[in-house]
Design a protein that fits this description.
seven-stranded mixed β-sheet, about 40% helix, 7 strands, 9 helices, globular, alpha/beta, Rossmann fold, single chain
């Protein structure tokens, strides 16, 4: 399940791609399929990185044309030199990090002039309902510690010196799932309504039926679970 739309973050042979907070590697492995693209996924979680590394072999049947590696690292102090990457992805990460400004500074630092960045966070109003429905949702270790408005986050990123060129929503179909999950938090994922909705999401992911695709297209601009923002770095400080 991809949040980034690679038609708005185009990859070309020779590009170096950084996936910050890569988790189990969904975006890193999608980029790995592109010819001549070199991908580095970085995350703090050893468990998630182990899963991501294990999935490299699973991609063989798709005939990957790039390269990928996964490293443990801190998004606030990335272990890379300045201007190291042509494309950077930071998807569903900033809401977990207390000093998110340090992350934005690092993203700007390691992005090449002329490079592009994609950042996504949970959309504010569906996220706020999750917080109202369950304190445990955002108080669990590693949970969401902040709700971003799109305007606030976009302003903070452009303050680093980046320019916005596109924005969209994603995963509207997932919003009711998380409301159910929060409402029935103590019963967990085995709750009948939650389990039933999860089956719907898996069916949608595997089959991509026209009805749910239509629902996503209709609702993503205002209800998508994620707000997805795209930025470019000027080719020079005088741009």
């Amino acid at each position: 399940m991809l949040t980034v739309d690679f038609s708005w973050l185009p990859l070309s042979a020779g590009d170096r791609v950084l996936d910050v907070g890569c988790g189990e590697g969904r975006h890193s492995l999608a980029a790995y399929l592109r010819p001549g693209v070199s991908v580095v996924g970085v995350d703090l979680s050893v468990k998630d990185l182990t899963t991501a590394k294990g999935r490299i072999a699973d991609m063989a049947s798709y005939d990957p044309q790039g390269s990928v590696r996964f490293l443990q690292g801190d998004a606030t102090t990335l272990p890379f030199p300045d201007d190291a990457f042509d494309r950077i992805i930071c998807s569903e990460v900033l809401e977990h990090i207390p000093n998110f400004i340090a992350v934005l500074e690092e993203l700007y630092r390691v992005l090449k002039p002329g490079g592009r960045l994609c950042v996504s966070v949970p959309r504010a109003w569906p996220e706020q309902i999750c917080w109202w429905l369950s304190e445990d949702y955002h108080n669990t270790p590693g949970g969401h510690i902040r709700i971003f408005s799109r305007r606030f986050l976009e302003r903070e990123i452009t303050r680093q010196g980046l320019n916005t060129y596109h924005r969209h929503g994603a995963h509207a179909l997932h919003v009711p799932y998380w409301w159910l999950r929060c409402l029935l938090w103590r019963r967990g994922e085995k709750s009948s309504p939650v389990a039933a909705y999860h089956r719907l999401l898996v069916w949608d992911l595997m089959k991509k039926p026209a009805l749910t695709r239509w629902f996503d297209r209709l609702c993503n601009p205002w209800m998508g679970k994620s707000t997805v923002l795209y930025f470019s770095k000027p080719k020079s400080v005088h741009s």
